[in-house]
Amino acid sequence: MNASDTADDGKAQPLGQPTNFRSLTASVANALQRDLVAGMYLPGAKLPIMPLAKHYGVSPGAVREALSRLITEGLVEFNEQRGFRTASVSPAALMDITRTRILIDVHALREAIRLGDLDWEAEVLAVHHRLANTPIRDSESAANVRDEWQRLHRVFHRTLIAACGSEWLMRFHDLLFDQTIRYRSVAAAYETERSDLRRDVKVEHAEIVRAAVARDADAAASALERHYLVTANQLVEGQDQNQGPSRGPTADRSG
Q1: Which CATH number is 91-241's, of 2.30.30.100, 1.10.357.10, 3.30.720.120, 1.20.120.530?
Q2: First and final C-alpha spacing in the chain
Q3: How does pLDDT run across 34-71, given as a tens digit for each residue?
Q4: Do 97 and 136 contact (CB within 8 A), yes or no?
Protein backbone atom coordinates (compact mmCIF):
# COMPACT_ATOMS: atom_id res chain seq x y z
CA MET A 1 0.00 0.00 0.00
CA ASN A 2 1.16 3.53 -0.63
CA ALA A 3 1.70 5.87 2.30
CA SER A 4 -0.20 9.13 2.49
CA ASP A 5 1.45 12.50 3.00
CA THR A 6 2.19 13.92 6.43
CA ALA A 7 2.80 17.46 7.59
CA ASP A 8 6.25 18.70 8.56
CA ASP A 9 5.26 18.56 12.25
CA GLY A 10 4.61 14.81 11.94
CA LYS A 11 0.84 15.07 12.22
CA ALA A 12 -1.27 13.26 9.68
CA GLN A 13 -2.84 15.43 7.02
CA PRO A 14 -6.56 15.02 6.31
CA LEU A 15 -6.88 12.46 3.56
CA GLY A 16 -9.36 14.55 1.64
CA GLN A 17 -12.62 13.21 0.30
CA PRO A 18 -12.16 10.59 -2.42
CA THR A 19 -15.07 9.97 -4.71
CA ASN A 20 -16.57 7.12 -2.68
CA PHE A 21 -16.41 5.31 0.65
CA ARG A 22 -14.34 2.47 -0.77
CA SER A 23 -11.54 4.78 -1.93
CA LEU A 24 -11.69 6.72 1.36
CA THR A 25 -11.29 3.46 3.27
CA ALA A 26 -8.34 2.49 1.08
CA SER A 27 -6.71 5.87 1.74
CA VAL A 28 -6.96 5.62 5.52
CA ALA A 29 -5.89 1.97 5.40
CA ASN A 30 -2.75 3.07 3.53
CA ALA A 31 -2.00 5.71 6.14
CA LEU A 32 -2.66 3.36 9.05
CA GLN A 33 -0.53 0.64 7.51
CA ARG A 34 2.35 3.06 7.06
CA ASP A 35 2.15 4.22 10.67
CA LEU A 36 1.77 0.72 12.09
CA VAL A 37 4.79 -0.55 10.14
CA ALA A 38 6.77 2.53 11.23
CA GLY A 39 6.05 1.74 14.90
CA MET A 40 3.80 4.76 15.53
CA TYR A 41 1.62 2.51 17.69
CA LEU A 42 3.31 0.09 20.04
CA PRO A 43 2.30 -3.59 20.15
CA GLY A 44 -0.93 -4.10 22.05
CA ALA A 45 -1.91 -0.42 21.93
CA LYS A 46 -5.60 0.41 21.71
CA LEU A 47 -6.73 1.85 18.39
CA PRO A 48 -9.77 3.95 19.34
CA ILE A 49 -12.04 4.79 16.42
CA MET A 50 -12.97 8.40 17.20
CA PRO A 51 -9.46 9.75 17.97
CA LEU A 52 -8.08 7.98 14.89
CA ALA A 53 -10.85 9.45 12.73
CA LYS A 54 -9.94 12.93 13.97
CA HIS A 55 -6.21 12.28 13.53
CA TYR A 56 -6.54 11.14 9.92
CA GLY A 57 -9.35 13.54 9.03
CA VAL A 58 -11.84 10.87 7.95
CA SER A 59 -15.12 9.38 9.16
CA PRO A 60 -15.29 6.81 11.98
CA GLY A 61 -16.81 4.34 9.54
CA ALA A 62 -13.82 4.62 7.22
CA VAL A 63 -11.43 4.02 10.12
CA ARG A 64 -13.38 0.98 11.30
CA GLU A 65 -13.36 -0.54 7.81
CA ALA A 66 -9.66 0.23 7.35
CA LEU A 67 -8.77 -1.42 10.66
CA SER A 68 -10.79 -4.48 9.69
CA ARG A 69 -8.81 -4.72 6.44
CA LEU A 70 -5.50 -4.55 8.30
CA ILE A 71 -6.41 -7.55 10.44
CA THR A 72 -5.78 -9.73 7.37
CA GLU A 73 -2.28 -8.21 7.06
CA GLY A 74 -1.39 -9.19 10.63
CA LEU A 75 -1.03 -5.58 11.77
CA VAL A 76 -4.27 -5.22 13.76
CA GLU A 77 -6.14 -7.52 16.14
CA PHE A 78 -9.79 -7.35 17.21
CA ASN A 79 -11.58 -8.65 20.27
CA GLU A 80 -15.23 -8.01 21.17
CA GLN A 81 -14.29 -6.93 24.70
CA ARG A 82 -11.02 -5.14 23.92
CA GLY A 83 -11.79 -3.61 20.52
CA PHE A 84 -9.12 -2.92 17.90
CA ARG A 85 -5.48 -3.05 18.97
CA THR A 86 -2.15 -3.18 17.26
CA ALA A 87 -0.96 -6.74 16.73
CA SER A 88 1.18 -8.17 19.50
CA VAL A 89 4.79 -9.13 18.94
CA SER A 90 6.91 -11.93 20.33
CA PRO A 91 10.23 -13.64 19.61
CA ALA A 92 8.37 -16.77 18.50
CA ALA A 93 6.21 -14.79 16.07
CA LEU A 94 9.25 -12.99 14.67
CA MET A 95 11.08 -16.24 14.05
CA ASP A 96 7.95 -17.66 12.38
CA ILE A 97 7.81 -14.59 10.13
CA THR A 98 11.51 -14.99 9.35
CA ARG A 99 11.28 -18.69 8.51
CA THR A 100 8.35 -17.98 6.20
CA ARG A 101 10.19 -15.04 4.68
CA ILE A 102 13.16 -17.28 3.94
CA LEU A 103 10.93 -19.89 2.30
CA ILE A 104 9.26 -17.29 0.07
CA ASP A 105 12.20 -15.05 -0.79
CA VAL A 106 14.82 -17.74 -1.26
CA HIS A 107 12.56 -19.55 -3.70
CA ALA A 108 11.75 -16.27 -5.45
CA LEU A 109 15.45 -15.37 -5.68
CA ARG A 110 16.28 -18.75 -7.19
CA GLU A 111 13.55 -18.23 -9.79
CA ALA A 112 14.75 -14.69 -10.51
CA ILE A 113 18.29 -15.96 -11.08
CA ARG A 114 16.93 -18.64 -13.41
CA LEU A 115 14.59 -16.37 -15.35
CA GLY A 116 16.15 -12.92 -15.06
CA ASP A 117 17.71 -11.28 -18.08
CA LEU A 118 20.46 -8.68 -18.45
CA ASP A 119 18.01 -5.88 -17.71
CA TRP A 120 17.23 -7.50 -14.36
CA GLU A 121 20.95 -7.82 -13.58
CA ALA A 122 21.50 -4.16 -14.46
CA GLU A 123 18.63 -3.05 -12.25
CA VAL A 124 19.89 -5.12 -9.31
CA LEU A 125 23.35 -3.58 -9.67
CA ALA A 126 21.97 -0.05 -10.04
CA VAL A 127 19.68 -0.26 -7.00
CA HIS A 128 22.42 -1.86 -4.92
CA HIS A 129 24.81 0.94 -5.88
CA ARG A 130 22.33 3.59 -4.75
CA LEU A 131 21.61 1.76 -1.49
CA ALA A 132 25.29 1.19 -0.70
CA ASN A 133 25.98 4.90 -1.14
CA THR A 134 23.09 6.10 1.01
CA PRO A 135 23.82 6.58 4.74
CA ILE A 136 21.71 4.37 6.98
CA ARG A 137 21.51 7.01 9.71
CA ASP A 138 22.25 10.72 9.82
CA SER A 139 25.06 10.01 12.29
CA GLU A 140 26.51 7.13 14.25
CA SER A 141 24.46 8.17 17.29
CA ALA A 142 21.16 8.69 15.47
CA ALA A 143 18.36 6.41 16.61
CA ASN A 144 16.26 6.28 13.46
CA VAL A 145 17.08 4.82 10.09
CA ARG A 146 16.85 7.46 7.36
CA ASP A 147 13.68 7.41 5.28
CA GLU A 148 15.63 7.36 2.01
CA TRP A 149 17.67 4.33 3.11
CA GLN A 150 14.48 2.58 4.19
CA ARG A 151 12.90 3.28 0.81
CA LEU A 152 15.92 2.04 -1.15
CA HIS A 153 16.26 -1.00 1.09
CA ARG A 154 12.71 -2.01 0.26
CA VAL A 155 13.34 -1.41 -3.46
CA PHE A 156 16.58 -3.41 -3.30
CA HIS A 157 15.03 -6.54 -1.82
CA ARG A 158 12.06 -6.31 -4.18
CA THR A 159 14.33 -5.87 -7.20
CA LEU A 160 16.35 -8.95 -6.25
CA ILE A 161 13.28 -11.15 -6.79
CA ALA A 162 11.45 -9.04 -9.39
CA ALA A 163 12.23 -11.50 -12.20
CA CYS A 164 10.76 -14.49 -10.34
CA GLY A 165 7.68 -14.51 -12.57
CA SER A 166 5.11 -14.79 -9.76
CA GLU A 167 2.82 -11.99 -8.63
CA TRP A 168 1.86 -14.01 -5.54
CA LEU A 169 5.47 -14.44 -4.45
CA MET A 170 5.88 -10.67 -4.74
CA ARG A 171 2.73 -10.07 -2.67
CA PHE A 172 3.89 -12.38 0.10
CA HIS A 173 7.32 -10.75 -0.03
CA ASP A 174 5.75 -7.32 0.55
CA LEU A 175 3.63 -8.56 3.45
CA LEU A 176 6.54 -10.24 5.21
CA PHE A 177 8.86 -7.30 4.55
CA ASP A 178 6.37 -4.99 6.29
CA GLN A 179 6.17 -7.33 9.27
CA THR A 180 9.96 -7.35 9.62
CA ILE A 181 10.18 -3.56 9.33
CA ARG A 182 7.55 -3.25 12.04
CA TYR A 183 9.67 -5.30 14.41
CA ARG A 184 12.72 -3.20 13.51
CA SER A 185 10.78 0.02 14.12
CA VAL A 186 9.72 -1.13 17.57
CA ALA A 187 13.32 -2.09 18.37
CA ALA A 188 14.96 1.05 16.91
CA ALA A 189 16.01 2.60 20.22
CA TYR A 190 17.50 -0.67 21.44
CA GLU A 191 19.60 -1.13 18.31
CA THR A 192 21.18 2.28 18.87
CA GLU A 193 22.05 1.56 22.50
CA ARG A 194 23.55 -1.86 21.77
CA SER A 195 26.29 -1.12 19.26
CA ASP A 196 27.66 -4.65 19.72
CA LEU A 197 24.61 -5.94 17.84
CA ARG A 198 25.36 -3.95 14.71
CA ARG A 199 26.76 -5.64 11.68
CA ASP A 200 28.02 -4.58 8.27
CA VAL A 201 24.80 -4.63 6.27
CA LYS A 202 26.62 -3.30 3.20
CA VAL A 203 28.81 -6.39 3.13
CA GLU A 204 25.78 -8.66 3.48
CA HIS A 205 23.97 -6.94 0.61
CA ALA A 206 27.06 -7.02 -1.59
CA GLU A 207 27.48 -10.76 -0.99
CA ILE A 208 23.89 -11.42 -2.11
CA VAL A 209 24.30 -9.28 -5.23
CA ARG A 210 27.61 -10.85 -6.27
CA ALA A 211 26.15 -14.33 -6.11
CA ALA A 212 22.93 -13.30 -7.86
CA VAL A 213 24.56 -11.66 -10.88
CA ALA A 214 27.04 -14.56 -11.08
CA ARG A 215 23.97 -16.83 -11.37
CA ASP A 216 25.13 -18.85 -8.36
CA ALA A 217 21.71 -19.66 -6.95
CA ASP A 218 22.99 -21.73 -4.03
CA ALA A 219 25.39 -19.03 -2.83
CA ALA A 220 22.78 -16.30 -3.27
CA ALA A 221 20.16 -18.29 -1.37
CA SER A 222 22.58 -18.98 1.49
CA ALA A 223 23.61 -15.32 1.69
CA LEU A 224 19.99 -14.13 1.73
CA GLU A 225 19.03 -16.65 4.40
CA ARG A 226 21.95 -15.55 6.61
CA HIS A 227 21.00 -11.92 6.09
CA TYR A 228 17.44 -12.51 7.28
CA LEU A 229 18.47 -14.68 10.22
CA VAL A 230 20.99 -12.11 11.50
CA THR A 231 18.25 -9.48 11.45
CA ALA A 232 15.80 -11.73 13.27
CA ASN A 233 18.30 -12.85 15.92
CA GLN A 234 19.33 -9.25 16.51
CA LEU A 235 15.73 -8.18 16.99
CA VAL A 236 14.90 -11.14 19.24
CA GLU A 237 17.72 -10.11 21.57
CA GLY A 238 16.15 -6.66 21.75
CA GLN A 239 12.55 -7.71 22.49
CA ASP A 240 12.68 -7.02 26.22
CA GLN A 241 14.06 -3.53 25.68
CA ASN A 242 11.16 -2.19 23.65
CA GLN A 243 8.74 -0.99 26.31
CA GLY A 244 7.86 2.69 26.22
CA PRO A 245 5.09 5.21 25.60
CA SER A 246 3.07 4.90 22.44
CA ARG A 247 3.52 7.69 19.90
CA GLY A 248 0.13 7.36 18.25
CA PRO A 249 -2.93 9.53 18.99
CA THR A 250 -4.30 8.54 22.44
CA ALA A 251 -3.28 4.91 21.92
CA ASP A 252 -2.30 3.03 25.07
CA ARG A 253 -1.30 -0.39 26.31
CA SER A 254 -3.80 -0.75 29.16
CA GLY A 255 -5.85 -3.92 29.68
Answers
A1: 1.20.120.530
A2: 31
A3: 999 988 898 999 999 999 999 999 899 999 999 999 99
A4: no
